[in-house]
Specification:
This protein is an alpha/beta fold. The chain contains 26 helices and ten strands. The protein is elongated and about 95 Å long. The chain starts with 5 loop residues before the first helix and ends in a 9-residue tail after the last helix.
């Protein structure tokens, strides 16, 4: 069979042909040029980064009879017969990893090279060797014959014993950059007369995740079906998502365009796209926006801190191994948590009824109360939309301020009488939280949480995600009632993230060391301002509100 796959056909045979890895390439070339050849080398790095190819190029240059500036001349007998040379021995340690194979190698090491300056052993995936095999090789690496050179390659340097590593010169091979991969893809396409769009070349480079072999294998596969490769070919067959789609999604997120975000996720849910590729691209785009925010090149509805937290939450989604639902549902919920609520206009019409459905019942009730006050004062119809938005944001800020104040008080009160036996008692019960009679939505919020501290009056819950902690705290009174019934004792709860808990715990330890004592603080009483709602209403409306629930009254 004459056909060669691209990654074999375009494997470099000289230092000049090696893409990237500039440091390793220059160091090895200078070693040949200055005739400072070590007896053992180890190349480490991810798959497809050129370790074995570089080892062969290096071996060819070492045995070249007339090297030019550290590069093999390609004209001498050694260079011409390199592929068939008996002095270049390639060993796959994955299949020859036993002590018997290594002992045979050691016995052959003593035999001088037949026609070359050095006998060179290239051992691929050296980390697969057994401990006994490594021990057998150790003495030979310590005192090798002058005519022998070992070049070892591995994708898992941690599994190679330190006794082996300390006897080798180590070279780290990095993943190829997108630009390096894209350049090589375009070069191969030019040589093979393959028509490829710039977007398609970029997408292949991205999917390959820094591996040249993966990139050329994918290009080879695509070119088998057609001599023209477009972005559509890749997106429809390899589970990828276009960069344009990702950029549009981030723009919609930063501009609070909920409908566009949900529309995009409707497309993703019905597609065959790999959600991990999608998350990686989305994180990279968010990182770029975060950098622009830090450098003050742009303005956004999201702060740098929010973008950072969103990236961590998306990474958490990607690391989940057991997802029983469509993963895009989970990702969509994470993103929507960073979108500000849509303000409801006072002149609500039928066309906006779908948007109203997106607002929670508590927010709808609060909004209706605001509308009553606006209409009775005669200001509802004339109030500019930007004022309404500012009021909505101000209200949300006030709620967060109240929650933060409550959080400080309950943390203080928990530390005031915290005891380990109380904590252990609550932890023992917490294991049964998933089977408790609480509503499913409450259990779903609490299932990934844990109890971190407890006293006779208060308890602190800890959860991984900031969004979950916020959702719990916004319903903390309701959730506390369920938990008090579950634990069969009166307690006041508050939720913290892992990071918040670390800060508070360290502060508590520091205070104890410095003799700072804690004292109980009273929580502020929150009274519902019913009088404010009815102060401008007529006498008839007051009578009606005395008889009926004022939340059920609609002023027309």
């Amino acid at each position: 069979m004459d056909y060669k796959v691209f990654y074999r056909k375009y494997r470099p045979d000289s230092f000049k042909g090696i893409v990237g890895q500039e440091f390793s390439k220059n160091m090895l070339q200078n070693a040949v040029k200055n005739e400072k050849i070590s007896h053992a080398y180890i190349f480490t790095g991810p798959r497809g980064t050129g370790k074995t190819s570089t080892a062969k190029v290096f071996a060819k240059a070492i045995n070249c009879e007339n090297p030019i500036n550290g590069e093999a001349c390609g004209e001498c007998n050694s260079c011409k017969n390199f592929a068939m040379s008996s002095d270049i021995i390639e060993i796959d340690a994955a299949s020859n990893n036993g002590v018997d194979e290594i002992r045979e190698l050691i016995n052959n090491v003593k035999i001088a090279p037949t026609s070359s300056k050095y006998k060179i052993y290239i051992i691929d995936e050296v980390h697969m060797m057994t401990t006994s095999a490594f021990n057998a090789l150790l003495l030979t690496l310590e005192e090798p014959p002058a005519h022998v050179i070992f070049i070892m390659a591995t994708t898992n340097i941690e599994s190679v014993p330190i006794t082996i590593l300390s006897r080798c010169q180590r070279f780290n091979f990095k993943k190829f950059t997108i630009a390096e991969l894209e350049s090589q893809i375009n070069y191969v396409c030019e040589q093979e007369n393959i028509d490829i769009t710039a977007e398609a070349a970029l997408e292949i480079a991205y999917i390959s995740e820094g591996g040249m072999r993966d990139a050329l294998s994918l290009l080879d596969q695509l070119s088998a079906n057609s001599t023209s490769i477009t972005i559509e070919n890749i997106l429809s067959n390899y589970g990828s998502v276009s960069t344009v789609f990702i950029k549009d999604l981030v723009k919609n997120l930063l501009s609070n365009d909920v409908l566009s975000i949900t529309s995009q996720f409707d497309q993703l849910k019905s597609s065959a796209s790999d959600y991990k590729i999608f998350i990686k691209k989305l994180i990279q785009e968010l990182v770029d926006y975060g950098i622009q925010l830090k450098m003050q090149y742009m303005k956004s509805n999201l702060s740098y801190e929010q973008i950072k937290n969103l990236i961590f939450e998306l990474n958490e989604c990607m690391n989940r191994t057991n997802i029983n639902i469509n993963p895009y549902i989970l990702i969509e919920l994470v993103l929507l948590n960073y979108v500000s609520p849509i303000p409801i206009s006072t002149d609500f019409d039928s066309e906006k009824s779908d948007i109203k459905g997106l607002v929670s019942s508590d927010e709808a009730v609060a909004t209706s109360k605001d509308e009553i006050r606006l209409e009775k004062s005669g200001l509802g119809n004339d109030l500019p939309s930007n004022i309404i938005e500012e009021k909505a944001l101000s209200k949300d800020d006030n709620q967060l301020d109240t929650l933060n104040e409550l959080k400080k008080i309950r943390i203080n009160n928990c530390f005031c009488g915290a005891k380990k036996d109380l904590l252990n008692e609550l932890k023992g019960c917490w294991e049964d939280i998933s089977t408790s009679p609480m509503p499913d939505d409450v259990i779903n919020l609490l299932i990934d949480s844990s109890i971190a501290a407890a006293s006779q009056t208060n308890a602190i819950m800890v959860t991984n995600l900031e969004s979950t902690a916020l959702l719990i705290n916004r319903r903390i009174d309701e959730i506390s009632d369920y938990l008090c019934e579950f634990f069969d004792q009166e307690l006041r709860f508050i939720a913290l993230t892992e990071e918040e808990w670390k800060v508070e715990k360290n502060q508590y330890i520091e205070n104890v060391r410095n003799g700072v004592s804690y004292s109980l603080k009273e929580e502020p009483l929150v009274q519902k301002p019913v009088e404010e709602m009815i102060e401008n209403t007529s006498q008839i409306e007051k009578i009606a509100q005395d008889i009926f629930n004022h939340d059920k009254i609609e002023i027309v």
